[in-house]
Amino acid sequence: MKVLLVSDAAQGESLIPEFRGRGWEVASSSDVPSALATARRVAPQVVVASERLPGGGGTVLVTRLRALLGTALTPVVGLVAGSVAEGRMTEAGASVCVAADAGPVAVADAVERADATPGAPALEVPVEVLSEPTRLATIEQTGLIPGDEDAAFDDITRVASDLLPAPTSLVSLVEAEGQFFPGRTDVAPRAAGGRGTPLAQSFCQWAVASGESLVVEDATRHQVLRENPAVGEQHVQAYAGVPLVVDGTTLGTVCAVDYEARGWDDEDLAHLQLLGQLATAELRVRLAQHGHRDWNEPGRLVGAVKDGVGAVAGLFRTARPQPDSVAHVGLVRLLERFNRRLQTWSSPGTAADGRVEA
User: Fold this and answer.
1) What CA–CA distance (Å, rounded) separates 39 from 29?
2) Do domains 2-120 and 128-345 have the same CATH topology?
3) CB within 8 Å of 179: residues ≥ 6 apart
4) Which fold has domain 128-345?
5) Average pLDDT, whole number, for the chain?
6) Cα 172 to Cα 178: distance, rounded to the nearest angstrom
7) pLDDT digits over 297-311, tens only?
8) What is the pLDDT of residues 235-265, one digit of tens each?
9) In the chain, what are the domain boundaries?
10) Which CATH number is 2-120's, of 3.40.50.150, 3.30.160.20, 3.30.365.10, 3.40.50.2300?
11) Taking the mean position of all CA atoms in its chain, how far away is CA 350?
12) pTM of the entire structure?
């Protein structure tokens, strides 16, 4: 068994000999950031975490572990001092709690119990992760309205569906209780859907929570995602998405969805990365358009537009879409839109305000 122990040095010195004596592989960390990095790297079968940790405490660690697909179902044994700490760790998602001074044998026995107990289905990322106020405020300040279509983001998804190809492509923005799609393209009748879903049907939430790309070839075989209602009800089987990150804050994804199991090759993922850069540039423009204090500066506006132009140029160069294809037409429209903005904002004395073109 692989065990990740997250505690101070003294507790580690006490517990590690007992763990190794039972034949377990043991990795150790002493704070939340390093523990998350180690968990990603070693994929432990059980995590043992002290409630008293630097970097936010054990409750933050458990919450973040529950927000990562690779550890969403991993049992956590909480080492606690008192009933209040036990309550906090249990609420965060710890499987078992043991008194911090219970001794190595008692803690190791708790690890064995936790390993033998199957985890509950994880349908949603913990709400604390997606409810960060700055992230939600940034989504609101884009001016994009849930349920509304948006020409630029729809063009991005048309390009995605044509290049990959995929029956459904989305630009998603993930909020605390659901996700909405300012861009959506469906090229097959069975794929027709709305402009948003609850989080229980979201794959994108996992990419947002981790800030990393998510690639799924067959969701029906995925330990976590197979329980997602989108798999059973909408028959989603394959997914590839890249996060949209603005100034270090992940707002949503550009993603492609298929209703049959499939692989995503390096070319598919390279196209998605460029589409993600394109959508991120468009989000930066919208923040400027709607008066976001950090973006309402001509220099940053022009930088965002140039990044968008660069992403379009990259897709023309690498994908080489055929003239008059859906991807070619969509990229031309996106390029023209960016170029009009660039000409406007590069003019001397031009103000960057709500009058810019969407």
Assistant:
1) 10
2) no
3) 172, 173, 196, 197, 199, 202, 204, 205, 252
4) Beta-Lactamase (3.30.450)
5) 91
6) 10
7) 667 788 899 999 999
8) 999 999 999 999 999 999 999 999 999 999 9
9) 2-120, 128-345
10) 3.40.50.2300
11) 36
12) 0.89
Give every strand in the sheet of 214-216, ordered side by side.
196-198, 178-186, 168-174, 249-258, 238-246, 214-216
Cα separation, 123 vs 223, in Å, equals: 11
Give pLDDT, residue 188. 67
pLDDT band per the 50, 70, 90 thresholds, residue 344: confident
What own/partner pairs with CB < 8 Å and gap ≥ 24 does 26-35 have?
27/2, 27/3, 28/4, 29/4, 29/5, 30/6, 30/54, 31/6, 31/55, 32/6, 32/56, 32/57, 32/60, 32/61, 32/64, 35/4, 35/6, 35/61
- Mean pLDDT of the region 265-286: 96
pLDDT range class, residue 152, cuts 50, 70, 90: very high
- Cα–Cα dist 244/190, whole Å: 27
Beta carbons of 51 and 58 less than 8 angstroms apart: yes
Helices (H), 93-202: 104-116, 127-130, 133-141, 151-163
